Amino acid sequence: MMPAKRRAPDSPVAERPTPAKRPSIQDPRHSGSHKFQGCSSRTVYRQINKLGEGTFGLVYKAEDTRTGAMVAMKQFTVTNEKEGFPITALREIKYLKQLKHKNVIPLLEMAVDKPIRGKDGHKRGVIMMVTPYMHYDLSGLLENPQVNLTEPQIKCFMQQLLRGIKYLHHNNILHRDIKAANLLINNKGILQIADFGLARRFDEPAPTPGSGGGVAMRQYTGNVVTRWYRAPELCLGERNYTAAVDIWGVGCVFAEMKRGRPILTGNSDTHQIELIFQLCGSPNERTMPGWERLPDARLVKSFGNHPRTLEAQFNVLGSSGVSLLSELLKLDPRTRVNAMDALDHEYFKVEPLPSKPGDLPEFEDSHELDRRKKGGQRALPPAPAGGTVGVGPSADWNGDIPAPYMNGNGRHVRPPPPPPSGRRPAWQKDGERGETRDVRAPPPEGGVGGHGHRQGKGGKDKTDTYIPSYRSDGGRPPRDDRQPRDDRDWRDGHERRRDERGSLGGGGGRGPGGGGGGDRNRDRDREREREREREQRDRERAREWRR
């Protein structure tokens, strides 16, 4: 048997194949040759001015020093080390990296900066999303008194919006926060859908022509969509919802463009659904099958029977426009029109025809911060972020309390409703209170906070609710962090002494059989219980979002 030949030193050695490089994501809309590379330093961008701010952080206008292109930089501030990077930011980054459509805002790249030290002394990272600079959002455009959109312009924006929604739903993505403020427009007339912090994939088949809104196959979190644009099924507690919730928002935006302001401006979730039924008529088994089985249907039974007024309110749209609006704002999500069928509607085929994006006039730049500086305008309620949707202090408003007043942010809110026991708030019963406490009513119009209202910079009230204060001569009682009164031994410390005084004829003890004097502590205990319930709901919603 002959020995195997040894390989010559110069013979080629078999090498492992080199893995193919992952293709970079090309974005032809930004400087023509820019490639998404993941991350870059914030120093390559020259900050120009601030465009807006919110719970997520800040938005800046900046210039890319490498290309000279104008961009918007959305900065995320990590404020809670236990929770880490905001889940809404992770969702937005995830979906924007996957999506590529003319009417969806593109993510150019991420930018990072050196950690900054907060007030607590801890360093936290600075992470920013970089997107193209858009000159205004639709909400700001409609608030500009010099802008009056014509019918061809409205049709142009509606077509672009529906094309973007069609693309999202075709890729099984729910936006879940369609509103005018999230529709960005540049000076070339291009509309792009932005803010994907509440977006998620849905399991149902993508909508097809003639299929309407489809049928839900699973449950999702119900705390989505800014209140003024929430579909009726969401307001009634439905969690088995479909892409039809986005279509309802499109209908609200359509009507808003014609009227020049939001059309359904509820002060609470209950008020919102009542406004919807005042426009679309009270639900029944024909217009909204199964509505009585929804979790919050009991609230509707107290509204009475509302006639439908949609056609009368929006007859200025013409017969075809009213027809499209009626399809977009159907109470029944299963028969609500989808984006494909809406694009094929007669409204876009009759005169006047939609204008071209390039034919739209240029307007003055308008962003969130610009509108805040003007003041005196009713602010849009915030998108869901772990708490009650909207601005009101209560989600159970029933219309039996006074008209809204305005706080320091220019936002209309309502005074807190009476507790379940039927007692009126302290500020409504001046004659029944002692002289040791300041019980003045909430601040007047104008929003300048005074004694008894939490203050911010410039004396502006920063809360949506009235915070009672104590006179300087009476002093504020010390905070009682012990267990609730009924769960502890009241015979300790000054409690025993107060009871002894009550047993001598004063009647001022707080123990069993004691007289008054415990109202304030019962109110405090009740407030602590409400706070614990709110925290528990926040934790549950956070877990739902992470699913």
- Largest sheet, if any? 6 strands, mixed
Rg calculated over all Cα atoms:
29 Å
Order of helices and strands: EEEEEEHEEEHHEEEEHHHHHHHEEEEHH
Q: Give start-end ranges of low-pLDDT stretches.
A: 7-17, 19-36, 386-416, 418-476, 485-493, 499-516
Q: Which structural class matches the secondary elements?
A: alpha+beta
Report strand %.
Answer: 5-15%
Biased composition (Gly residues): 503-518
Biased composition (Basic and acidic residues): 427-440, 473-502, 519-547
Subcellular location: Nucleus
Keywords: ATP-binding, Kinase, Nucleotide-binding, Nucleus, Serine/threonine-protein kinase, Transferase
Q: In short, what is this structure?
A:
The chain has helices at residues 87-98, 138-143, 151-170, 232-235, 244-259, 269-280, 310-313, 318-328, 339-343, 368-374, 493-506, 519-546; strands at 25-26, 35-36, 39-41, 45-54, 57-64, 70-77, 109-117, 123-132, 136-137, 173-174, 183-185, 191-193, 200-201, 405-406, 412-413, 437-438, 469-470. With 547 residues, it is of the alpha+beta class.
Describe, in plain words, how this protein is organized in 3D:
This protein folds into 3 domains: 37-132, Phosphorylase Kinase, domain 1, CATH 3.30.200.20; 136-374, Transferase(Phosphotransferase) domain 1 (Transferase(Phosphotransferase), domain 1), CATH 1.10.510; 418-478, no CATH class. 25% of the residues lie in helices and 13% in strands. It has helices at residues 87-98, 138-143, 151-170, 232-235, 244-259, 269-280, 310-313, 318-328, 339-343, 368-374, 493-506, 519-546, and strands at 25-26, 35-36, 39-41, 45-54, 57-64, 70-77, 109-117, 123-132, 136-137, 173-174, 183-185, 191-193, 200-201, 405-406, 412-413, 437-438, 469-470. It starts with 24 loop residues before the first strand and ends with a helix.
